[in-house]
Amino acid sequence: MSFKTVKLTILSQDDVEDAKKSQKELLKNRIVRLTNEAFEQGTLLTQADLSILLNVSIKTIGRHIKQLLEEDIIVPTRGNRMDIGPGTSHKAKYKAFFGVYRSLPQGVRQSCRTS
Question: For residues 113 and 10, which has the higher predicted lDDT (pLDDT)?
């Protein structure tokens, strides 16, 4: 395993404003910012990394990342970019597509292949 030094913004002025509104939104915004800052510097954080940086449990990080992904907000973590771990990946989308594909009548499926 190799490590790379990155510069991350642990606390920003936006965080101070977000903290006045909602702790949940503050945490979600910090997760997005930290993962994007690391990604822009050519590395990926794990959920464990985020847990340590933000002083919350890995389970809490996972729950927030799942909510962000459901909102179509991209969170580039090592688990979802490297397609490891229990997170939703392209495999789930692939299976969903072929579930619909298989339910189509044979003639429609045949025309899909030749299009």
Answer: 10
- Give the closest residue to 91 by CA, choosing from 80, 100, 101: 80
Q: Could you tell me the two tokens for 45?
A: 């954080």
Would you call 77 helix, strand, or coil by DSSP? strand
* CB atoms closer than 10 angstroms to residue 105: 8
- Measured in whole angstroms, the distance separating CA 38 from the mean position of its chain's CA atoms is 13
**What domains are there in the chain, each with its CATH number?**
1-84 (1.10.10), 88-115 (no CATH)
pLDDT band for position 4 (cuts 50, 70, 90): confident
What the block records as the tokens of 14 is 């936006």
Angle of CA points 72, 75, 80, to nearest 5°: 100
pTM (2 decimals)? 0.69
**What length does the chain have?**
115
